[in-house]
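G., before I forget:
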Amino acid sequence: MVETIQWADAGVVMIDQTRLPREEVYVTCRTYQEVAEAIRTMVIRGAPALGVAAAMGVALGMQRVEGEFRAHLDRVCATLAATRPTAVNLFWAIDRMKRLALKLEGQPHDQIAAELVAEAQRIREEDIEINRAIGRHGAPLVPDGKRVLTHCNAGALATAGYGTALGVIRAAVEAGKKIAVLADETRPFLQGARLTAWELQRDGIETTLITDNMAGYFLKRGDIGCVIVGADRIARNGDVANKIGTYSVAVLAKENGVPFYVAAPLSTLDLSLASGDEIPIEQRPASEVTHVFGVSVAPEGIHVENPAFDVTPNRYVTAIITEKGVARPPFEETLAVFAQK
Amino acid sequence: MVETIQWADAGVVMIDQTRLPREEVYVTCRTYQEVAEAIRTMVIRGAPALGVAAAMGVALGMQRVEGEFRAHLDRVCATLAATRPTAVNLFWAIDRMKRLALKLEGQPHDQIAAELVAEAQRIREEDIEINRAIGRHGAPLVPDGKRVLTHCNAGALATAGYGTALGVIRAAVEAGKKIAVLADETRPFLQGARLTAWELQRDGIETTLITDNMAGYFLKRGDIGCVIVGADRIARNGDVANKIGTYSVAVLAKENGVPFYVAAPLSTLDLSLASGDEIPIEQRPASEVTHVFGVSVAPEGIHVENPAFDVTPNRYVTAIITEKGVARPPFEETLAVFAQK
C-alpha cells in the first residue's frame, strides 16, 4: 500500500499528490510552515490525511520552542489551522495535539517533543485502524456483482492508509465480493482521475474512469449497486460536506433508487453544528478551473467560481459508515450514540 | 459574430473548434471526405451546425460525379451519415439534399451542382433565421436579473450563427434584460470552457465558468433563474438527447424548482422515435477523457467509458423552445402541432 504520510528523522514525508499519477515523488517538510504550505497547495489532501498532517505539523513545530511556550504553541496551531477551512479533522487533530501539549507544559522539553511525536504517530496508526473498522462495517452494504460509484478520492491517499470509501470497497473485495468501481474524475483537481484510478489500479481492482457529468447517465442505466463517498465534515443532523459534486451525485442516486453511503471516521463529525448550512465552504483559485497541469483550457480573463466543497442534505444520505458501526436516519440520534460510545 | 461555417470557392470553410479558444484558425475542406473527417474529429460540432456541414458536404461531393449518378450520391451521403450517430439534424440535412439531388437527376451537371450549393447555403441562412426566431420565443421565459445556467455549447458555434440556447440568452439581453451566464465547462471536450465562454466573452455577456459538478451547488443556492440547453435529438414524446451531463443538470434543476428549457430547431425533432430510449448514443474515444490538450490526466491503461450524450426524460423538461413557438407538456401533442405547421 502507498505511504501517504510518515514521520521521519528529517521531518514529515508525504507523497506529492499534485504530481500523481505522472510522478511518484516524496517531499519532506522540515518545518511546520512547510507542512502548512503542503496542506494549502494540496500536496496532501483528504480529511483524515489532513488530520494526520496537522498533528505531525504540530509535533514538528514543537520540536524547537521559540520564545514563550504557549505563544509558540498558539502560533504553530494557528498557522496549521489557517490552511483549509472545511475538513474538520484538521481542527480535531490540532485540538488533540494542543490539549496534550498544554498538559505536558513544564516537563523537560525533550520529553514534550518526544511525546508529541508519539501522539502524532498514534493518530496516524489509529486512522489506519479506524479505516479497517469502517471497511468491516461497510463491506456488507456493498451489493455483490455490481458497480460502485465513488467521487473524489477517499482512499489510502486521503487517509493514513486503506481509505474510508475505498476502504469499504477494499474490504468488500477482500470478503470475496466481485466489485467494479466507477470513478468520477472529479474536476477541477482531478482527484478521481489522478488518485482514485491510480490507487485502485495498483490494487488490481477493476476501475472505470468517467467524467463527473457521466455519473447520472450510469446511475439511470441501472448498473450501479451503490454510491460510496468520504466526507470532510458532518453536521449533527447528518448533513455532509464533501468534495464539490457530491451533492449532485447524491441527488442523482436518490432519483434512481441507488443507496448513497458516506464513509467517515467519527473525527469528521462536528457536533457543534446543527446543520450543514453552517459548514464553511472553501473557495479555491480560479486557475484550478482554467488550467489543467498548466495547460489553459478557457479564454483568458474569464470569470470563474471554484467552491471546493458542497453540502449534501441528510435526506439524500442512506447511511453513514463509521468505525463504530453504520448510522442510519434519524442521524441526529444515531450519530449521537456513536459519538458517546 | 463568429462565422462557424461558410461556402467558398475553395470549399467549405470552418473555424476549427478543436483549437479554440487558444487559436482562431479556419480550415478549408476541399472534398466531401474532408468534411466528414471534420465532423468526426469535431472541428465542427453542434447539432444545427452539423446539419449545415453535412448539407455543404453533399453539395461539395456532388460538384464532380464519379461513375453512376445515384451510386455516387449514395456514397457521398453514406460517408457523411457515418460520421456521428446522435444529432438527427445531420441526417435531416443529408435527406433534404438527397431528395433535391434525385429531383434534379438528368439535368445538366453544372445546374445540379449549382442548385445543390444554393440549397446548402439556404439551409445555412435558414438556420440563422430559425435561431433568431427561437430567441424571440424564448427571451420572455428568461427571468430578469438572475443567472442562466447552460451546459455544453448551443451557441453561434453550434449553429450557422446566433445559437439556440445562447440565442435565447442573446435575445433576452437584446431585449434589455440583465442576465449573467453560468457556463458548465462540459467535460470531456470542454465545449463550455472553450467555446461558450469564448463566444459570450466576445459578445460582452457576463459569464462565469464552473466545472460540471458545481452546477448542483449553484442550483441549490438559489441564484439561477433558469437552465437553457440545446438538443441533438428530440423524440416524439419530448425526451431530449443532448451533451452528456444534460440529464444531471435537468434532475438537479427539477429538484431545486428551477425551470429547465431546451432550445432547438424543429429539425432536431425525430418523430420516428416514440421515446428517447431509441436514440443511439455515440461512444467516443477514451483519450478525450484521459488527455486534455494532449496532456495526460489519468494513469496509463486505465479503463474509460465515454458516452457523448445522454437522454433527459420529458418529465424534467419545462418547455421546448422552437422557431414556431414554445412547446409545453404534453410534448407528444404540442410538438406534433409545431411539426405540422
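The longest strand of chain A covers residues 224-229. Chain A touches chain B through 53 residues (CB under 8 Å).

More on Monday.
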